[in-house]
Amino acid sequence: MNQKQMFINGQWLSAESGQTRTIINPFNQQVIAEVAEGNEKDTQYAIDAARQAFDKGDWRHTPALERGKLVSKIAELIERDKQELAELETLDTGKTLTESIADMEDIAEVFRYYGGLADKDGGEVIESPIPDSRSKVVREPVGVCGQITPWNYPLLQAAWKIAPALAAGNTLIIKPSEITPLTTIKVTELIEEAGVPAGVANLILGSGAKTGQMLAESHLVDLISFTGGIETGRKVMTAASSNFKKIALELGGKNPNIVFDDAEFDTAVDQAMNAIFFHSGQVCSAGARLLVQETIHDEFVAALVERTKQIKLGNGFEDTTQSGPLISEEHREKVENYVTIGINEGAELEIGGKRPKGADLQQGFFFEPTIFTNCHTSMRIVQEETFGPILTIERFETEEQAIQLANDSKYGLAGAVWTKDIRKAERVSSELRMGTVWINDFHPYFAQAPWGGYKSSGIGRELGKLGLEEYTEVKHVFENTNPQPLQWF
Ligand SMILES: NC(=O)c1ccc[n+]([C@@H]2O[C@H](COP(=O)([O-])OP(=O)(O)OC[C@H]3O[C@@H](n4cnc5c(N)ncnc54)[C@H](O)[C@@H]3O)[C@@H](O)[C@H]2O)c1
Ligand SMILES: C[N+](C)(C)CC=O
């Protein structure tokens, strides 16, 4: 099997140590690739290349229109290779091919969007209060950007970082999760094919502790953009303080899905299923906390349990599969442990809570879709991100109680409210301390709207205009048009 390499300064390279890592398919544990396993030396090489390309290269001086065209060209190449990319993503993550294809379409759209946005901000003229002067505010690229991504949406999360960074004129080093690097490697080939100059976009592969940590610590890196778990985010933030680099953190969530008794019942049930069980719950914004109004609680739970029995787990490449495996044995053990925690805390297990028995599922890291009732905000299974197919259900009586329960969390990534009373929906929405609130829906995100979290769910925003601004520094340029001696000294 050919080794997949890193891309540094326009060259495909093996690790300096010669080490490789084996990548497996979580559906059946078969080996799907051997990839270079970089370490601190390789990371330093990539940082130096990106630094040189930013400081001495032409990229940041290339007209924004031209940079935008290149970013749009990458979008076209992703469209062209959509099927191959989607298949790689399904092999690497176990998610269904339908999901992977949808991800690739979103990803192409993100590159198209930032390609188009690249030249739209021409700066701002300020009315200066000082006579004989001119004042303007311009945005410039931040510099060298370290970018670290997780395994659950490997290429999507990379796209949210790479596209705006390039559009704004930065150079970058992307480090995908060591578990799921394949689509990021492939897209780096497309970035090369599009004609992005050497040293501008670099790819480093390896463990977070050796490569990601170094990106976060390095004094030669100007910005670190991280998507991942809260504890890793804390390490990244601490390391980033070494030179006070700019930070953007997209962290976890434990997202409330609030259903009032006047909601359209069948739709709310259907979407509550999707909110939690999509991609086996391995979604930062999964609706893992369901809050149901007392008056419909029992009926709602019964409908959910009935629907959950019918979920078809399996191979992401089969049309009938609705949900794939978890990403790894280690992650499955973590999810399994949360079931034990929930039971010990007094939650009632309604369905699931164990590994499935099907013969065709034994080689994969499968876990049954699980529902707990009788849950309270004092419980760890309600407060902590299990990042698996575990739904906790809480009851509420009043609107005020629903808001209070929903906000009783260290996280603030996303939430939803279901009701036919739009004034109630807007009241609740305005009280929720979250970066995204969906009304009568769950999960939509798109290139034009910002994404990010309140509270411990992160710092900064990706997507939308704000997602481009994250990759810029603001400079005020003041010009005295009639300079005179001050004669102060
Ligand atoms: N807010 C969002 O938009 C969003 C999106 C996707 C995933 N997530 C979160 O990501 C998490 C799941 O992903 P994960 O398990 O890959 O997260 P993780 O924190 O374990 O790893 C994320 C990345 O950080 C790297 N890393 C590990 N240690 C590091 C260190 N010391 N310094 C720098 N980098 C290091 C890893 O190699 C990986 O590339 C969940 O918490 C999920 O909510 C958030
Ligand atoms: C941000 N999102 C929803 C695409 C992936 C979260 O894990």
From TrEMBL:
CDD domains: ALDH_BADH-GbsA (cd07119)
InterPro entries: Ald_DH/histidinol_DH, Ald_DH_C, Ald_DH_CS_CYS, Ald_DH_CS_GLU, Ald_DH_N, Aldehyde_DH_dom, BADH
Keyword presence, NAD: yes
Keywords associated with the record: NAD, Oxidoreductase
Domain Aldehyde dehydrogenase span(s) in chain numbering: 12-477
EC id: 1.2.1.8
Active site feature: 250
One Pfam family recorded for the sequence: Aldedh
Pathway membership, UniProt: Amine and polyamine biosynthesis; betaine biosynthesis via choline pathway; betaine from betaine aldehyde: step 1/1
Family the entry assigns: Belongs to the aldehyde dehydrogenase family.
Protein name: Betaine-aldehyde dehydrogenase
Organism: Thalassobacillus devorans
